[in-house]
Amino acid sequence: MAKITGLGGFFWKTSDPAATAKWFTDILDLPTDSWGRVFPWRAADQPDESGYTVMGLHATSSDYFKPSTREFMINLRVDDLDGMLEKLRARGVEIVKIHDPDSFGRFAHIVGPDGVTLELWQPPADAPSE
C-alpha cells in the first residue's frame, strides 16, 4: 500500500539564494550552494537503507510552488507515487501537477492545508545517498 516514508526536503523562497547559501556556509559551517544542499542519512533500524533530505533555496520570483503563494514547500518521500496519487484522488485531494520523471525520481504536487503545496517524491530505486 502506498505510503509516506519520510521527509524528502524543505524548500523556501529567498530574495537572494546565493547570499542565503553563503550565510549557511559562513555562519553555520554548513556548506551550501545557491540551490541548497543535501543531507545524507542512513536508517538507524535498517543500516542498509540510505537516502538524503534536501534543503532547497528558490528565488522569491520562482513559480515552482504554484498555486501556493506561500514562501515554503514541503517535500515528502513516498514508496509508490502512482498508488499515493490514486489514494489522494479518492480522498478529494487536488493534484496540481505530475512532473516528468527525471534522474532524481518522480514528483507530483498536491494542495495541502492552508493552500501549501506539498511535493510528493518517489526517489529512483538506485537513488544516491549523497
Describe this structure in words.
- The protein has 130 residues and is an alpha/beta fold.
- The chain has a single domain (4-122), classed as Roll (2,3-Dihydroxybiphenyl 1,2-Dioxygenase, domain 1).
- Helices cover 17% and strands 39% of the residues.
- The protein has two helices and seven strands, in the order E-H-E-E-E-H-E-E-E.
- The chain has helices at residues 17-28, 81-90, and strands at residues 4-14, 36-42, 50-59, 72-78, 95-98, 106-111, 117-122.
- The protein has a seven-stranded mixed β-sheet with strand order 2-3-1-4-7-6-5.
- Strand 5 (95-98) and strand 6 (106-111) form a beta hairpin.
- The radius of gyration is 15 Å and the shape is globular.
- The two termini are 28 Å apart.
- The model has no long low-confidence stretch (mean pLDDT 92).
